[in-house]
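Appendix C: a fully annotated inverse folding record. The material below is reproduced so that readers can follow the format used throughout the book. The structure is listed first as tokens, followed by the designed sequence.
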């Protein structure tokens, strides 16, 4: 598992996640910047066209964009640590809640 993470991290150490009603895509910082500029324009374009980090050509309605989040190895490691600690806390306390903030 660790070796797989290292390989994936070498391919795209930092990326953005574009979350839309049609799905989520991992995109490069350059593509994220283009999308942010498009969303800030007025009038806003009806469609966004971009290529994700796997090379897939995507076309999605701009009104469907829910969020864009930055992801780095440090952020992902902190999230994994947080998740492990929460699971340990739930197991120790006997809580069956799936995920409680």
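Designed amino acids, in order:
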């Amino acid at each position: 598992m660790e070796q797989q993470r290292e390989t994936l991290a070498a391919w795209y150490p930092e990326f953005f996640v574009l979350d839309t009603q049609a799905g989520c895509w991992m995109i490069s910082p350059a593509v994220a910047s283009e999308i942010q500029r498009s969303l800030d324009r007025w009038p806003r374009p009806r469609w966004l066209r971009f290529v994700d980090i796997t090379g897939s050509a995507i076309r999605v309605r701009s009104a469907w964009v829910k969020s864009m989040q930055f992801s780095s190895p440090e952020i992902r490691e902190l999230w994994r640590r947080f998740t492990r600690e929460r699971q340990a806390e739930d197991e120790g306390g006997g809580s069956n809640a799936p995920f409680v903030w």
